[in-house]
Amino acid sequence: MLYQFLLNFVDSFSFLNVFKYLTFRTGLSFFTSLIIVLIIGGTFIKFFSKQKILNPIRNDGPEDHIVKKIGTPTMGGVIILIGLLISVLFWADLSNLNVLFCLYIAISFGLLGAFDDYKKIKYSNSSGISSKLKLTFQIILAIIGVSFYVYFNDYQDLTNLYFPFFKNLIINLGWFFIPFSIFVIIGSSNAVNLTDGLDGLATVPVILVAACFAFISYVTGNIVFSTYLQIPYIEGTGEVSIFCGAIIGSCLGFLWFNAPPAKIFMGDTGSLSLGGSLGAVGIITKHEIVLAITGGLFVLEAVSVIVQVISFKLTGKRVFKMAPIHHHFEKKGWPESTVVIRFWIISIILAMIGLATLKLR
Q1: What confidence tens digit (pLDDT) does each residue in 44-76 have?
Q2: Cβ atoms 84, 266 nearer than 8 A
Q3: Are 53 and 70 in contact (CB under 8 A)?
Q4: Which ranges constitute the DSSP H helices of the chain?
Q5: Are 73 and 258 a contacting pair, CB within 8 Å?
Q6: How far apart are CA 269 and CA 252, in angstroms?
Q7: 152 touches 158 (CB < 8 A)
Q8: Which of 80, 135, 175, 291 has the smallest set of CB atoms within 10 Å of its CB?
Q9: What is the pLDDT of residue 68?
Q10: Bridge-partner residues for 160, per DSSP?
Q11: Do 266 and 317 form a contact (C-beta atoms < 8 A)?
Q12: How far is the C-alpha of 109 from the C-alpha of 244, rounded, in Å?
């Protein structure tokens, strides 16, 4: 919005040409979202506390959570989304299909998460809407978004699946690309949602993955860098780096309030939206498998829940003391801060591995 407005004056004021550079606008996107979240965060926390928009604690969770976390406001994802959306609207090219796709996923999944948070708050339990209903809504929203994205996209190799570490290993998914993309978005959304269980645990890995994909989207949209790295060149993908920059800024600002001990939780409003957005970015850049590597912590959390459920249903026994796996380590006696920091370290390592795949082909 502001970006397009400023371009009208480029001929009169040559210094405005700087706004044509993706790196400059990505930086502006980062700082805009960061400043907005830092400014409005405190006000929203006071408002949520006053309105009793508080986080329901799992009855079967670690015992100290009931003592330490009860009474903490939730739906902090609203703060993240405000910073994210304003920043993208200011600095991104809103005629770019990739940006519109990301915005759709962020908003629609954020609204679904807000509805889930509302149900939890209204009935004072941690269940919210049923998992089947939530999944149904996610599928519908993802189908709509992916269908429109495919219909209006003129990229010839859109349905290709590229494998890291292999230069020429490419599979054309054909029409299976649509259900595959839906799976990536929903899987990513739910994986981040499952990870969001401790103070700051999900926020930092989201920042790391978004930072990786800010770089990936930039080089994918640059014919020189993409040729050098031997990755597919996709015109217009560079604009997604501005969206990723907004995610980083918003989450970093939110971390100011979410750092232990958290003054507010992002809730499903934030986790479903951020996770779905990362999935969308992975699809746009054709780096879906790299997304699974850089976001390996989210994958681990999701797999731990799946393994726990399958094991209990088949054998009546649990593999972990509690799932997701971060609660398992809490049950083993690890302090919350230890779990969080060690999981952050794992995320950093996985992010570095994911970036390394760009050159190791």
Answers
A1: 999 998 888 887 766 655 655 545 667 789 999
A2: no
A3: no
A4: 2-7, 22-50, 63-68, 77-91, 97-123, 131-152, 177-195, 203-220, 223-229, 240-258, 267-284, 288-294, 296-315, 325-331, 336-356
A5: no
A6: 17
A7: no
A8: 175
A9: 63
A10: 172
A11: no
A12: 17
The DSSP 8-state label assigned to residue 202 in this structure reads T
Max Cα-Cα span within the chain: 73
pLDDT in tens, 95-146: 999 999 999 999 999 999 999 999 888 877 767 788 899 999 999 999 999 9
Distance separating alpha carbons of residues 19 and 11, to the nearest angstrom = 13
CA distance 145 to 180: 13
Averaged pLDDT for residues 288-307 = 96
Q: Which residues of 19-46 are buried (b: 16+ CB within 10 A; e: fewer)?
A: beebeebbebbbebbbebbbebbeebbe
Q: What is the pTM of this model?
A: 0.94
CB 113 within 8 A of CB 267: yes
Residue identified by tokens 């990301």 is 102
Question: Does residue 73 have a cis peptide bond before it, meaning omega lies within 30 degrees of 0?
Answer: no
**Residue 4 is encoded by which pair of tokens?**
């397009």
d(CA 331, CA 298) in angstroms, rounded, equals 20
171's enclosing H/E stretch is strand 170-172
Structure token pair of residue 245: 């920059």
Beta strand pairing status for 160-162 and 170-172? antiparallel
Residue found by looking up tokens 């949209």 in the block: 221
Tokens of 50: 């006053």
In DSSP terms, 161 is beta-bridged to: 171
Compute, in degrees rounded to 10, the torsion defined by CA atoms 111, 112, 117, 123: 120
Nearest to 134 by CA among 331, 272, 39: 272
For helices 77-91 and 267-284, give the axis angle rounded to 10 degrees.
Answer: 40
